[in-house]
Design goal:
The chain is mostly helical. The protein has 17 helices and no strands.
C-alpha cells in the first residue's frame, strides 16, 4: 500500500469513527472516550495538515475553544487546590483543546448528515430500550425506572435535544418520511414529559421548542410554541405521576428550604449561596484551576451539605467557573457561548439550528449542573459544535480560493 492510499484510508476511517461517536455519546461513555481521540488521531494521520491547520485557525469558534482551555491552563499556575485536583480538571478540559481537530473531520456535508442520523439512531435505541425496561423486558444498563444507559439528568437532556432535532426533520423532510419523524417526535416527547424523572430536561425541552418556532415563525412562533408547551405541561401534570411528583418536589424543596437544606433543590441553592461567597473572596481571577473542592471544604462554619456529600459539586457551571476564575472566568465562559451563537447566523439552515439548539441547551443546563465538566454533556457539546461549525470552515475555504 502506498502512502497516498494509506492516507485516504485514514481519512475515511476518521470520518467513520466520528460518525460512530454520535450514538456512543448516547449509549456508551467508554465507546465515546475511545472514538473521539481515535477520530482525531486518524484525521491527523491522513495528512494535509497545513490546510487543516489554516481552516482551524481561521474559524472563530475554534479560537473560542482554545481560549476556554487557556483559562484552565493559566489558572493552574496560581491554584490554591492540590496538584491532583488541578491535573484532574486540566485533563477533563483538555478535550476542548483537542476538539478543534474534529472540525476538519466534518468538512463534507454528507458526513454531517450521517452523524446526525447516527445520533438519532442512538436515541431510538435508547428509546426502545427504555420502553422495554419499563415493561420488565430489560434490566441491563438501567439507571432508573425509565432511564437506561445514562443518568436521569443526561437521559432527559439528550431526549429533549432529540425532540428539537426531530422537529427540524419534520419541517424539512419530504412527505415520504415526514410521518415517521412525527411518530419519533411524539415518542420522544412522551418520554421527556410523561416518563422521565430528569427535571432539567423538562425546562430544556420547553426552551428548545420556543427556540425552534421562534426561528421558523418569529414572534408568532413564540406564541404558538408557548401555548403548545403550556398545554403539554398541563397534560403531563394531570396524567403523569412522575412529572407531577418531580414538579411538586421543586416547590416543596423551595418551601422547606429554611428548615431543611438537604433536599435536591435545597442543596443546589446552598451551593449557589456558598459559591457566591467564595467568588467574593477571589473576585477577579478566582482561586485557580481545580480549587473548588478545597475552597468549598474550607468554608467556616462547615456547610451542612458537606455532611451528605463527599465531593462538593456546585451543580452550576457558572458558579464552578466563577470560584476558580472569578469575573475573568465568567467573561471567558460567556464568550465561549456567545461567539458560536453569534457566528451561527452564517451557517446553513440545518447547522444553524443544531448550533443554536446545542448552545441554548448547555447554557440552560449549566444553571443546575456542571455541564461542561460532565463527561456526557462535554462530549455532546464538543461534538455538535464541531459538526455545525465545520460548515463555517467550508465557507471560509471556498471564500479563500
Amino acid at each position: 500500500m502506498n502512502l497516498s492510499k494509506f492516507k485516504q484510508k485514514c481519512e475515511l476511517a476518521s470520518k467513520i469513527c466520528a460518525v460512530a461517536a454520535a450514538p456512543a455519546i448516547v449509549l456508551s461513555t467508554a465507546a465515546a472516550v475511545i472514538l473521539f481521540p481515535l477520530a482525531i488521531i486518524l484525521n491527523i494521520a491522513a495528512g494535509n495538515l497545513r490546510e487543516k491547520f489554516n481552516l482551524i485557525v481561521r474559524n472563530p469558534v475554534t479560537l473560542a475553544f482554545l481560549l476556554f482551555f487557556l483559562l484552565f491552563l493559566i489558572g493552574s499556575t496560581y491554584s490554591t487546590g492540590p496538584i491532583t485536583d488541578v491535573l484532574i480538571v486540566l485533563r477533563k478540559h483538555a478535550k476542548y483543546l483537542l476538539a478543534v481537530m474534529l472540525f476538519p473531520v466534518f468538512m463534507e456535508e454528507k458526513w454531517r448528515n450521517y452523524a446526525i442520523l447516527s445520533f438519532i439512531g442512538g436515541i431510538l435505541v435508547m428509546l426502545v430500550a427504555s420502553y422495554l425496561r419499563t415493561h420488565g423486558y430489560l434490566s441491563w444498563g438501567a439507571t432508573g425506572a425509565v432511564e437506561i444507559f445514562k443518568s436521569s439528568i443526561d437521559f432527559n437532556f439528550l431526549m429533549a435535544f432529540a425532540a428539537y432535532l426531530s422537529l427540524f426533520k419534520i419541517a424539512s423532510a419530504s412527505s415520504r418520511y415526514r410521518m415517521a419523524w412525527i411518530i419519533i417526535f411524539i415518542l420522544i416527547v412522551h418520554t421527556v414529559l410523561f416518563r422521565s424523572m430528569g427535571r432539567s430536561g423538562y425546562f430544556i425541552f420547553m426552551a428548545l421548542m420556543l427556540l425552534f418556532f421562534e426561528q421558523k415563525m418569529g414572534w408568532r412562533g413564540l406564541i404558538i410554541a408557548g401555548a403548545s408547551v403550556t398545554l403539554l405541561f398541563v397534560l403531563a401534570f394531570s396524567f403523569s405521576s412522575t412529572f407531577k411528583g418531580r414538579i411538586n418536589f421543586i416547590f416543596n424543596d423551595i418551601k422547606v428550604y429554611q428548615q431543611n437544606e438537604n433536599t435536591s433543590v435545597g442543596l443546589r441553592m446552598t451551593f449557589v449561596k456558598n459559591g457566591i461567597k467564595l467568588i467574593k473572596a477571589h473576585p477577579v481571577f478566582g482561586a485557580g484551576t481545580g480549587s473548588y473542592v478545597k475552597e468549598y471544604s474550607s468554608i467556616k462554619p462547615t456547610p451542612l451539605d458537606l455532611n451528605v456529600i463527599t465531593a462538593p459539586n456546585p451543580h452550576n457551571e457558572y458558579i464552578y467557573i466563577g470560584v476558580q476564575f472569578g469575573i475573568v472566568g465568567l467573561i471567558v465562559l460567556l464568550l465561549f457561548f456567545s461567539i458560536p451563537l453569534w457566528y451561527s447566523k452564517f451557517l446553513p439552515e440545518k447547522e444553524k439550528y443544531i448550533a443554536r439548539g446545542v448552545i441554548v441547551s448547555i447554557m440552560l443546563g449549566s444553571l443546575s449542573n456542571t455541564c461542561l465538566s460532565d463527561i456526557t454533556m462535554r462530549h455532546f457539546y464538543i461534538y455538535f459544535i464541531a459538526l455545525a461549525f465545520a460548515a463555517l470552515s467550508t465557507k471560509i475555504k471556498k471564500s479563500s480560493k
